[in-house]
Amino acid sequence: MQPVRVRFAPSPTGPFHIGGARSALFNWLFARRYGGVFILRIEDTDLERSSRESEENILAALRWLGLDWDEGVEVGGPNGPYRQTERLELYQRYAEQLLSQKDAYRCYCTEEELAAEREALLAEGALSGYSGRCRNLSPEDCARLEAEGRKPAIRFRVPDNQGTIVVRDLVRGEVSFDCSDIGDFIILKSDGIPTYNFAVVVDDHCMSVSHVIRAEEHLPNTPRKILLYNALGWETPQFAHVSLILGKDRSKMSKRHGATAIEQYQEKGYLPEAMVNFLALLGWSAGGEEEIFSLEELTRQFSLERVSKSPAVFDLDKLNWLNGHYIRQSPIEYITDLSIPFLEKAGYLKTPLTPERYEWLKEVIALVRKYLVCLDDLKDHVGIYFNEEVEVLEEEAREALTAPHVPALFEALARLVLDCPALSAEAAKGLLKAAGKEAGVKGKQIFIPVRAALTGSIEGPDLDRIMAILGKERVARRLAAALDRGL
Ligand code: GLU
What we know:
The structure is a single chain. The chain has helices at residues 18-33, 52-65, 88-100, 111-123, 139-147, 196-206, 222-232, 262-268, 272-280, 295-301, 316-329, 332-345, 355-368, 383-386, 395-400, 406-419, 425-439, 444-455, 463-470, 472-486, and strands spanning 5-8, 37-40, 71-72, 104-107, 153-156, 164-169, 173-178, 185-188, 211-215, 238-242, 245-246, 312-313. By secondary structure, the chain is mainly α. The strands form 5 sheets. Strands 1-2-3 form a 3-stranded parallel β-sheet. The protein has a 3-stranded antiparallel β-sheet with strand order 4-5-8. A two-stranded antiparallel ribbon has the order 6-7. Strand 1, helix 1 and strand 2 (37-40) form a beta-alpha-beta unit. Bound molecules: glutamic acid. The site of glutamic acid has 7 residues, from loops. Residues 9-11, 43, 200, 214, 218 line the site of glutamic acid (GLU).
């Protein structure tokens, strides 16, 4: 196999979508799997819609996902610059080459003329390719039109009798395109900006790209690209078009099916590990039942042979499941660190944390993480550990507090807790039992009212661990407050 050089070539024109991130991941995995090079090129030729802000978002999202690049914007490399608007001379040079070979010509038609032409063709029921009006202009014609103040675009001359073009695609197999209706197309606009197909061909060649792995929506562009490769005498790279992403209802993935921008998932507290795992399964599978894959495992196993031709289905439940998995299974320090900004945002924490506070927080996170789908859910689960008071709103919890044995139980427990030198979870377990003994009750008769008083609910994580997290004073205060309320 030739040296693998792949690229991810986003257009920085808006939010960074799931589909783009999947293309980036597949390219990255392919490069890493085969010891190749992963290039990041910015396709910013749509001057109106492109922005640096959007570019920065894409870079930040790639870094967040753990996808580093070997050549490209910010890191540089031998084939730079890596932003298309900084490569205009190069496109100019190859457009000139095509002009001199007569594979391209200057076209002086104005937007209005082209629009009128399209309309006329449509009215006749003809396909709306370019009519070829400027195909055979003489140098004198050109001089006259230029004297009128017209600035020419450069159009590629599609070879006559261009029949079928076959794209040999590593995912889709051989795909034939009938090219009889491809009209001559613009490669360089009158302002010197290249069009998409031309810029991509020049760049992929100049960057020695070996494999073009991208979304299926670009497949119909590929015949035009092949025509350009042929005219320039360049070898085509290998193509691999990855299928569309559909919603669960099998319509094209859109906002209706869930957030489409990577950033939105990051903001909600999805873990990059879950996102990478999920994106990998959007069109690729390892072949077995296994669904949990780290980036390292994916790097070992990824291959284009296992990328499916059929559309991938975006299943938010699966992403939620994966995220829950990584929240539960990752090292507790890691999840704690990721949780801090979410708790800060919710007003529960102020950083920096003292080492003691950090250790305490770790206990809280360890206790509640099994309830989370994403880290943004934390705010709904941690109030009882951060707030001074707890409100007992649940009907069943209120009722549990009215049992006749509760005053004796709570008084005993409060006393034992305050007397205890350090309220660890282990100690709390013993004290609960001892207080029950004093009040002449055991099991649920102890746990349910105590839990109700401490948390306002009759369900939740381990009571002894909750007590250790709350600490002696808060436990005693909450028991007393519950009794006051009940009296
Ligand atoms: N700039 C194109 C896009 O963002 C990618 C083109 C390609 O991968 O060839 O869709």
